[in-house]
Amino acid sequence: MSAAIFVLTIILVIWQPRGLDIGWSAALGAALSLLSGCVSLSDIPKVWSMVWNASATLIGLIVLTLTLDEAGLFRWAAIRICRAAGGSASRLFVCVILFGALLAALIANDGAVLILTPVVAAVLAELALPRQAVIAFVMAAGFIADTASLPFTTSNLVNIITADFFGAAFGQYAEAMAPAAAASVAASLGVLWLRYRRWLPRRYDAARLPEASSAVADPLVFRLGLAVLAALPALCFAAGAGGIPVCAVTGSAAALLLAASRRRRVVSISRVLRQAPWQIVIFSLGMYLVVFGLRNEGLTSGLTQALEALASLGTAPAVFGTGVLAAALSSVMNNLPAVMTGALSIESAGVPEAVRTAMFYANAIGCDLGPKITPIGSLATLLWLHVLAHKGLKVTWGMYIRTGIVLTAPVLLAALAALALTLG
């Protein structure tokens, strides 16, 4: 029964029939799980303890991101990057990828992909680049937003859930993931360059762009936002060392920027709050209750046995096996339920503690990168495709999957190899 409920819930989350967003789709699945007895009322506090910090952190980051977007920070940065590239399309391509990697690390993959894609598309339209070149840039922006979301717990909802699950502090997580994050960005830059270099023109006319300062709508929020983004990793590190939930940091940063926005009333606070993903709270609790039902009915036991077999071969096979399994699950069942499924299976596995920790990290890497193989792998990708369609840049599912497999596989293996060397 739990498997049928899970499949129905995933279909509704991806399909999103009119009037039924992702939150209510997951809530319907949770209700069916409760009514069928797959989960009990006593399971709700257990699941909530796993997801409340992740959900609150993501909402804080998205509110912060939307506020900075209204203030003009991201458009300002995009214009500055276009001018700094000096008219070289190849140099600009590399700069956009590195800028996307920085945003993914600081404001999470969801914020990066939803803000960077329309900003880059708008700026490139002003440069009058060929359509094929514009597609190359936005594909690169969408890809790097996920593949660069490894370094911090705040960089991806998957990371927060993973760190909370086995009690890793912000600094501990960042230290373990730093080599894998660097390898992922380097590999992403390489595969994206090889894939799209022929789509790029040699030169573009940077003189067509307005001055970067013209993009700044609210100077106070703009300056404060730059300071907040620069300080965010250090603040999260300090919070983790002091046992303070990371959502307290992101929530406080978002509140500070909203308070600053009231000074000149250029940034619309009401619009920012309306656009915040409040439904993610309902989605998190509902979706994970559905996954918990799979665990209660023993449907994750097969995965647990596979992980135990991998662990018996040593740390490196456990890392690669766990990461690849997590990536495959994410590509077909969405990365958020996949990370929960993997974490519950790892927790149940009878393996040495050091290997278990390595498997938790590998599970996060697989669930961060695996979603790039298919459009349904993550909600961010589905939203990204929706944004592109509104910009008149249609990317078919067939085109996406063909590209996703080629790009994702080497990046995933590079990141897992770096993790295996770090923890082995």
Automatic annotation (TrEMBL):
Origin: domain of life: Bacteria
Topology relative to the membrane: Multi-pass membrane protein
Keyword Signal in record: no
Chief place of localization: membrane
Record's subcellular location: Cell membrane
This protein's UniProt keywords: Arsenical resistance, Cell membrane, Membrane, Transmembrane, Transmembrane helix, Transport
CDD domains recorded: ArsB_permease (cd01118)
TM helices/strands, residue ranges: 47-68, 89-107, 113-129, 134-153, 173-194, 215-235, 241-260, 272-294, 306-329, 400-423
InterPro entries hit by this protein: Arsenical_pump_ArsB (IPR000802)
Stored PANTHER family: TRANSPORTER ARSB-RELATED (PTHR43302:SF5)
Cited function: Involved in arsenical resistance. Thought to form the channel of an arsenite pump.
Family stated for the protein in its record: Belongs to the ArsB family.
Listed name of the protein: Arsenical pump membrane protein
Organism from which the protein derives: Mesosutterella porci
Native organism taxonomy: Bacteria, Pseudomonadati, Pseudomonadota, Betaproteobacteria, Burkholderiales
Encoding gene (name): arsB
